[in-house]
Amino acid sequence: MSILQDIKDAFRQPNNTLKQLILINVIVFVVLIVMRLLLTFTVGPGAYNYLMSFIALHSDMGTFITRPWTLITYFFTHQGFLHIIFNMLNLYWFGQLIREYLGDRKLLSLYVIGGIAGGVLYMLSYNFIPYFEDRAASSVMIGASASVLAIVVAAATLLPNYTFNLILIGPVRIKYIALFLVILSISGAVGDNAGGNIAHLGGALIGWLFIKQLQRGNDMGRPMHAFFDFITGLFKRRPKLKVTHRRTTTFTGKANGSTTTVAGKPSQKEIDLILDKISSSGYESLSKEEKQKLFQASQKE
């Protein structure tokens, strides 16, 4: 099977958001490498820089107004192997946790909202903080770090005592990994990559806020998914109407103080209680029934 066919299959499979996000980043990275080579050898390096100006996020508000799509494209764009490798590894490791416990839609919400928040904080800082005044006209930003850090902090907020085995270090709880990355971004907010580190902090804030709001029953990604569902619905074929007559019976009852349905799908109250238990005692403390309810909730959306 060809590489192209593998890519097509990855985008056709349902509930495959993590792999799709990684693939998009890798494909953009490879395409830009090829474009840089071709443009440099044929037209000159200036042509590639001009192309990047339509993808990277500009700190200058006047430029951004003419290219608003860059608030999205910048967090799918990388230059340098270490840059994309580090981001994609963190996206895979921590994204697996979000995907397993909260589902693909929550993972997509965190990635997109975290990237947007990082980009907005970057532009606001460069335009309203005097320290960055000299850089505002020429600074541009690319990279998925803000999106990835949103996912890292979200996973650490949801499962603070979950442990990763790090090479040469051993088992480390992910709350300490997230804390280290946040402190690293704070320390770099006055360095050469100040704009990027400020964006990281915007993503980290969204990751923490997203989980805290979710535990209170508020899904910050709901408006985004409503928009996506509307757009995709425009391109879906409407099925032919079939008129059938059948008798239906609806039953609702209460179990353990929470409303359930005959389909067995857990209520929001049940999910909130399970998330609180994970936050305080870890995923391992859940019963088999609670794990099943969490899985059903992730499939509901």
TrEMBL record:
Subcellular location: Membrane
Membrane topology note: Multi-pass membrane protein
Domain Peptidase S54 rhomboid residues, every copy: 68-211
Pfam families: DUF6576 (PF20216), Rhomboid (PF01694)
Sorted UniProt keywords: Hydrolase, Membrane, Protease, Transmembrane, Transmembrane helix
Record-level Gene Ontology MF annotations: peptidase activity
Domain of life, per lineage: Bacteria
Alphabetized Gene3D superfamilies for the sequence: Rhomboid-like
One GO process term, biological-process aspect: proteolysis
Enzyme Commission number(s) from the entry: 3.4.21.-
Domain DUF6576: 267-300
Record flagged with keyword Transmembrane helix: yes
Residue intervals passing through the bilayer: 21-51, 71-95, 107-129, 141-162, 174-191, 197-214
Top EC group: hydrolase
Annotated family: Belongs to the peptidase S54 family.
Protein's name in the database: Rhomboid family intramembrane serine protease
